[in-house]
């Protein structure tokens, strides 16, 4: 398995991968398949240009992704957001998720201004919560009714991880 930053040449594969993720695990994401499927390819390309999206490849096939979006405002540029994390079902339990989270955190550490990486995760996604906590993330809040679905509401957990070593 190899992890590398996705480039414009990966936009078609990234779009297909994420649309599959939204369909397979709709409660894992705030965005929906219906929301993202009609977006032009330029939207997906722009995401790969403006955010850091890492892909896990098994041979040449994309099997996992995770994004990192640094804050760009002066008073919050010490933070970045881990977003859009997903691993193909056939590759779960093989360390792909942990490798992606580690790669995101390593990338964040290489950014001089970034001291904290934050994320949100659906509280019922126990495997993801375990992964994030095992990777050093700490819960700092719970957001009830964070996402509305056809079946009701989902609660999101807010987690953070220091990447600078000087925050506790």
Spell out the helices and strands N to C. EHHHEEEHEHEE
Shape field: globular
State which percent range the strand residues make up: 35-45%
| Helical residues, percent | 25-40%
Q: Radius of gyration in whole Å, from Cα? A: 15 Å
Overall strand count: 7
Tell me the layout of helices and strands.
Blueprint (H helix, E strand, L loop, with lengths): L1 E4 L5 H14 L8 H4 L4 H10 L1 E7 L2 E10 L8 E9 L8 H14 L6 E7 L3 H9 L3 E12 L2 E11 L6
Parallel strand pairs: 4-5
Antiparallel strand pairs: 1-2, 2-3, 3-4, 5-7, 6-7
Helix pairs in contact: 1-3
Description:
The protein is α+β, with helices and mostly antiparallel strands. About 30% of the residues lie in helices and about 35% in strands. It contains 5 helices and 7 strands. It has helices at about 10-25, 35, 40-50, 95-110, 125-135, and strands at about 1-5, 50-60, 60-70, 80-85, 115-120, 140-150, 150-160. The protein has a 7-stranded mixed beta sheet with strand order 1-2-3-4-5-7-6, sandwiched between helices. Strand 4, helix 4 (about 95-110) and strand 5 form a beta-alpha-beta unit. It is globular, with a radius of gyration of 15 Å. The relative contact order is 0.15. The model has no long low-confidence stretch (mean pLDDT about 95).
């Amino acid at each position: 398995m190899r992890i590398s930053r996705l480039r414009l040449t990966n936009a078609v594969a990234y779009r297909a991968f994420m649309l599959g993720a939204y369909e397979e695990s709709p409660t894992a994401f705030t965005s929906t398949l219906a929301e993202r499927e009609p977006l032009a390819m330029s939207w997906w390309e722009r995401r790969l240009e403006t955010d850091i999206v890492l892909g896990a490849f098994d041979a040449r096939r994309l099997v996992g992704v995770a994004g990192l979006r640094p804050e760009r405002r002066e008073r919050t540029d010490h933070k970045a957001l881990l977003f859009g994390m997903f691993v193909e079902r056939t590759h779960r339990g093989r360390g792909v998720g942990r490798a992606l989270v580690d790669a995101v955190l390593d990338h964040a550490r290489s950014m001089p201004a970034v001291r904290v990486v934050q994320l949100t995760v659906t509280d019922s996604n126990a495997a993801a919560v375990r992964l994030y906590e095992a990777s050093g993330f700490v819960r700092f809040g719970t957001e009830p009714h964070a996402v509305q679905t056809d079946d009701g509401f989902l609660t999101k957990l807010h987690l953070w991880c220091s990447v600078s070593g000087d925050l506790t």
